[in-house]
Amino acid sequence: MSDTVERHEFGAEVGRLLDLVVHALYSDREIFLRELVANAADAVDRRRFEALTGASPALPEGAGVRIIPDKDARTLTISDPGIGMAKADLAENLGTIARSGTRAFTQSLAEAKPGDRPSLIGQFGVGFYSAFMVAERVEVTSRRAGSEEAWLWASEGRGDYTLAPATRAEPGTDIVLHIKADADEFLEPFRLQAIIRKWADHITIPIIVVRDGKDEPANEGTALWRKPKSEISEESYTEFYRHLGHMFDEPWATLHWHAEGALDFTALLFIPGMKPFQVVEGERESRVRLHVRRMFITDEASLLPPWLRFVQGVVDTEDLPLNVSREMLQATPVLARIRRAVTGRVMTELKNRAKDAEAYARFWENFGPILKEGIWEDAEHRKDIAGLLRFRSSAVEGWTSLADYLSRMKEGQEAIYVLAGDSAEALARSPQIEGFRARGVEVLLLSDQIDAFWPERLGSFEEKPIRSITQGSVDLSKVVAGEGEQGEAADIAKLVPLLKDALKEHVSEVRGTDRLVDSAVVLAAPEHGPDLHMQRLLQRAGRDFGASMPVLEINPRHPLLRKLAAQAETGGSLEEAAGLLLDLARVQDGDSPRDPAAFARRVAEMLAGGMG
Asked: What ranges make up the beta strands (E) of 328-458?
């Protein structure tokens, strides 16, 4: 064995590539530890596999990865009892950027039986070089299993490296990082433990962090989702759910399955039993965690669409291609197919559970508004989501579906009628539904913010159009009137143009309606454009530019309108009365009068006149 230290140049324009790794490839410096632990876990798995064939000595009992910070020496050591590297391996794997021993080894396993293949993480040959983000010098001492020789590879990441003979009592690898002055945090055991818990908590190989001279476990070491369902208790599922999402309740639904064939992945997903508390509203991305061979990669892979973002859990795959940094997933067909499969599985679960009305009501009250977003933004799943929607109604207690609504439609009814507003309770008392109630026509009461948007996108259900009762003219003449609709209608032919002229700056039209019973007037939106609720939302947001003026609908059977119709016949002034009618309609819809003080004065005058 030569005692000469050999100096070599890195291959493949390493100067430029190392600078890329250190300064641009990774957005978070802590990633280096994930990469080195992944490599160490691969090496242990590889030795275990080769031991099965007799090609390498067996692993020692309790073999794991040890992480040893030394503040005095300013070094961080990652040690593993894995397959190790010979001199040629060190030069080939660490001396050439993008030369991955793991990838080459994976190719050599093409003939191996699936059950015997180790769970290898590394895909590219640059993860090791992330060490230079935090280290000014890296030393690798390694001894190949089955060999008595050990070698030391060392570099400062400036374009060259050295190889020299070394000693190591057992096969395996020690990586020593000489930590930079601005990376002191990576010499703190608690910081190292936190990083391992975040990125490698479920690696089955034990990971130890040495703290005050004592070995402390840093990872859980059990990937629950990899176990057969028959071996997992409900308590274990609940414990994992609480650990994963920092929740305190029990999951409403647990989905655990393994997909094989064209796709190979395992998923363990939870639908929470309660609505999570969010300090900041507006987060719309799915946070289902993506793992590759148990190693956490990201929770930003958008494995579920935004309208299923309440689902929590893990998807773990064996063969998903990753880019070199593992931080940005390649836009591969494989990932797209996994997304479709996971979304489809969640939708199937919701459809099955929706059959239990009482249990489904718990889910709907927590996450219904989020699910409705899918109607607005996801044409592919719009029809399926529509079947899962639930509503308050003017006709029945509790929640009802669109299918149930159709089963109760009256003869002659042409559409599914909805009324949107801020409160279901207030909507149930709205004059807008008087005529519908009198004819026994059901109206769905929509009180979520998203309800102002999605009906337009859905358009219809089972070929029945969905119509807002505040938009356009609703014709209920084909539906037989009930007993609540009484009284003779006044002739309003002269009254309507007089009211329209008096209110020409405030309304686009005045017309009679048959959808009022007890109320004198009501507002409606023109046939085209947003309905009244949408207009109010736009006004609150300061975006009501171009909004159409409302339509004032009057009830010809109401005593007040009969009196005004008679007054119109005699040519009396209707200016004051017209203003009062409009303000009454606004108040009924939850708006303020145009001039609250003037409105109060007019009402007081009318009351005084009536008392006299």
From this structure: 392-393, 416-420, 443-446
Per-residue pLDDT at 123: 44
DSSP secondary structure letter of residue 92: I
Give per-residue pLDDT as tens, 403-441: 999 999 998 898 999 998 888 998 998 888 988 988 899
Strands (E), 260-333: 265-271, 289-292, 295-298, 312-317
CA distance 105 to 540: 62
CA 87/CA 165 separation, integer angstroms: 9
Are 64 and 151 found together in one domain? yes
Q: Which domain holds residue 196?
A: 6-216
- DSSP-assigned beta bridge partners for residue 444: 393, 418
| Pair (135, 18) in one structural domain | yes
244 within a domain of the structure (yes/no): yes
Could you give the CA distance from residue 221 to residue 208 in angstroms, rounded to a whole number? Answer: 11
Tell me: do 394 and 449 sit in the same domain: yes
Find all residues with CB under 8 Å of 478, minimum gap 6, and list them.
412, 413, 414
Look-up of token digits 């009618």: 581
**In this structure, is residue 435 part of a structural domain?**
yes
CB 304, CB 371: distance < 8 Å? no
Whether the per-residue pLDDT at 54 is higher than 80: the answer is: no
Q: Is 16 helix (H, G, I), strand (E, B) or coil?
A: helix
What CATH code is carried by the domain that includes residue 335?
3.30.230.80
SS3 per residue for 546-589: CCCCCEEEECCCCHHHHHHHHHHHHCCCCHHHHHHHHHHHHHHC
CA distance 523 to 584: 10
Distance between the two ends of the chain, CA-based, in angstroms?
A: 121
469 and 382 share one domain: yes
DSSP 166-197: E--SSSEEEEEEEE-TT-GGGG-HHHHHHHHH
273 and 341 both lie in a single domain: yes
Angle at 51 between CA 46 and CA 56, to 5 degrees: 85
Residues 459, 571, single domain; the answer is no
